[in-house]
């Protein structure tokens, strides 16, 4: 297994194989098999292209061969930061075939996150788009390389704009020639890619997912969602996130021979038009985006849309309020499925035969019969059935450790291998989970996860900030927004200035505090040197959000 990763103990691996969960198929072989079975069916659609399964397969081969010519091979890490274009899928499968590992970055990430990912993983290459929504990824990539001294190759999907040091992906593919080219034969039990965690302490952690475990979660999810060759799935969220990738996501659709349509953004104007044009049957959203869709259709600007093809709207990534959940069928005319998942593994779904109230009020139940669930108190003791506690889990597709993070792993996983999710849940008698809150230090901004530590570290870099504590404040639209309490040095910076400062440091926009409040001092938090965590709790208690909080802006829906 890739160095820096924690394998499942052999007795668990044996059990998962015996029960048929881990089948020994690699992601590269998975696509090859689908290309044989569904050759001329449409696999992938974006704004400009429609690729059949056969075409996607051939492109993945050529790109793999071209990447091999650049010297990229088994075990190499490649940071992939692409929007929802067909190449995001092509590049991933090319890398899988080489046994090289995609490290998935979100399109919203900026220089700070990308530099970190490239250096932390010693990436051999970085793959970016040219420009999107007014942002130039090429310039960012070159800055990353200047700052970190790597990665060796920067590949651009689209136009390099003539900048030296950038390689167009198209040329890599052309140089891969026409043959099946260079493909390795990776071990299906080994790591296929690294997925980003939302993060709690400091910098984001990387989650190593194996071919075996990931394909099992994909198959199980596709089965629960009853996908088939008639499925037309709209990837509205960024395709590199675990939800639209595997729950059941585009991989689940490929496993069933359906069609994936990539949306450039999750907004109702874009997506509801695509539902009509492409006869979409399934899609997945975070709660704020779902709320915008409901309002747009319910007497809003998209009321005229014909959504009759839509069968299932999945909502997950953050808690979906029951009142909004109950509007889905009457307004959109389709079924709701709640999805409570995590990039570390465990995914829960409400099922199509669950009573309507179960679908509206729970976050589903585990995908696998071998997902082990524990709900514990702060001492780690099981709480009585139905009581609130922290969710711990282990199973055939939940990782046993983060990549290169032994110290963090000792905290995030129990001695017997359960992942401490940090989510506060209760179980219902039917085994469904209800997410009631969170024990972890993370802010869930409408599905986008923010680690307070990471933002505080950046804030402390400002000369006018003596100390900082970033906390969540409740918000009717996003569920939570971020508020930075700062103890200023002198007059202290205004929010606008701080926001500019953080952007300048290359921090993703969704991590920039929505509010900044200056205080004279932080409340005392017990004795001695205070931990950031204690400080945040004290700040939260002393400055509970009040009626003066600004009303939420009708922002663009966030993308996890
Ligand atoms: C998904 O994955 P991540 O890794 O971005 O975030 C996981 C965390 C969970 O631990 C939980 O705190 C929160 O996001 N969460 C939910 C939720 N779904 C995720 N909280 C309440 N209700 C829900 N339905 O967010 C993710 C991965 C795969 C599928 C769906 C979501």
UniProtKB/TrEMBL annotation:
PROSITE patterns: AMP_BINDING (PS00455). Its EC number is 2.7.7.58. This is 2,3-dihydroxybenzoate-AMP ligase. It comes from Streptomonospora salina. It is an enzyme of class 2 (transferase). Gene3D superfamilies: 3.30.300.30, 3.40.50.980, Luciferase, Domain 3 (2.30.38.10). Keywords: Ligase, Nucleotidyltransferase, Transferase. GO terms for molecular function: 2,3-dihydroxybenzoate--[aryl-carrier protein] ligase; nucleotidyltransferase activity. GO terms for biological process: siderophore biosynthetic process. Residues 32-403 form the AMP-dependent synthetase/ligase domain. Residues 548-560 have a biased composition (Pro residues). CDD domains: 23DHB-AMP_lg. Residues 454-529 form the AMP-binding enzyme C-terminal domain. Residues 539-560 are annotated as: Disordered. Pathway: Siderophore biosynthesis. It holds the Pfam family AMP-binding_C. InterPro entries: AMP-bd_C, AMP-bd_C_sf, AMP-binding_CS, AMP-dep_synth/lig_dom, ATP-dep_AMP-bd_enzyme, DHB_AMP_lig.
């Amino acid at each position: 297994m890739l160095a820096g990763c924690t394998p499942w103990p052999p007795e668990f691996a044996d059990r998962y194989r015996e029960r048929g969960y881990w089948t020994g198929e690699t992601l590269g072989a998975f696509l090859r098999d689908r290309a044989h079975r569904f050759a001329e069916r449409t696999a992938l659609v974006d704004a400009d292209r429609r690729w059949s399964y056969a075409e996607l397969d051939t492109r993945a081969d050529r790109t793999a061969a071209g990447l091999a010519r650049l010297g990229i091979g088994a075990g190499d890490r490649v940071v992939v930061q692409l929007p929802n274009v067909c190449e995001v899928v092509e590049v991933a499968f090319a890398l899988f075939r080489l046994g090289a590992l995609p490290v998935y970055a979100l399109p919203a990430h900026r220089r700070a996150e990308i530099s970190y990912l490239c250096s932390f993983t010693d990436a051999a290459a970085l793959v970016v788009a040219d420009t999107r929504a007014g942002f130039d990824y090429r310039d960012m990539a070159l800055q990353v390389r200047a700052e970190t001294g790597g990665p060796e190759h920067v590949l651009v999907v689209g136009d390099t704009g003539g900048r030296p040091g950038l390689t167009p992906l198209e040329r890599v593919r052309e140089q891969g020639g026409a043959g099946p080219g260079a493909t390795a034969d990776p071990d299906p039990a080994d790591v296929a890619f690294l997925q980003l965690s939302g993060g709690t302490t400091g910098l984001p952690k990387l989650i190593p997912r194996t071919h075996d475990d990931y394909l099992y979660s994909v198959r199980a999810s596709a089965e629960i969602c009853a996908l088939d060759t008639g499925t037309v799935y709209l990837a509205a969220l960024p395709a590199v996130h675990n939800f639209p990738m595997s729950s059941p996501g585009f991989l689940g659709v490929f496993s069933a021979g359906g069609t994936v349509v990539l949306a450039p953004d999750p907004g109702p104007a874009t997506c509801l038009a695509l539902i009509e044009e492409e006869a979409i049957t399934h899609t997945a959203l975070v709660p704020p985006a779902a709320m915008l869709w409901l309002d747009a259709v319910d007497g809003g600007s998209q009321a005229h849309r014909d959504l009759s093809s839509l069968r299932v709207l999945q909502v997950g990534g953050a808690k979906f309020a029951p009142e909004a959940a109950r509007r889905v069928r009457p307004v959109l005319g389709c079924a709701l499925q709640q999805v409570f998942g995590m990039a570390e593994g465990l995914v829960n779904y409400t099922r199509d035969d669950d009573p309507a109230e179960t679908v509206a009020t729970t976050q589903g139940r585990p995908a696998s019969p071998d997902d082990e669930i524990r709900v514990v108190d702060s001492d780690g003791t099981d709480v009585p059935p139905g009581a609130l506690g922290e969710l711990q889990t282990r199973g055939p597709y939940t990782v046993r450790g983060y990549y290169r993070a032994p110290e963090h792993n000792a905290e995030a996983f129990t001695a017997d291998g359960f992942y401490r999710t940090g989510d506060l849940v209760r179980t219902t008698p039917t085994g469904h989970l209800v997410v009631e809150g969170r024990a972890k230090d993370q802010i869930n901004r409408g599905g986008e996860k923010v680690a307070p530590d990471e933002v505080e570290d950046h804030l402390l870099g400002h000369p006018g900030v003596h100390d900082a504590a970033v906390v969540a404040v409740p918000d009717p639209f996003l569920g939570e927004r971020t508020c930075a309490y700062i103890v200023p040095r002198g007059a202290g910076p205004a929010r606008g200035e701080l926001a500019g400062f953080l952007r300048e440091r290359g921090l993703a926009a969704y991590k920039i505090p929505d509010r900044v409040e200056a205080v004279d001092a932080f409340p005392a938090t017990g004795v001695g040197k205070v931990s950031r965590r204690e400080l945040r709790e004290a700040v939260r208690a002393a400055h509970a959000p009040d009626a003066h909080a600004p009303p939420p802006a009708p922002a663009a829906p966030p993308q996890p």
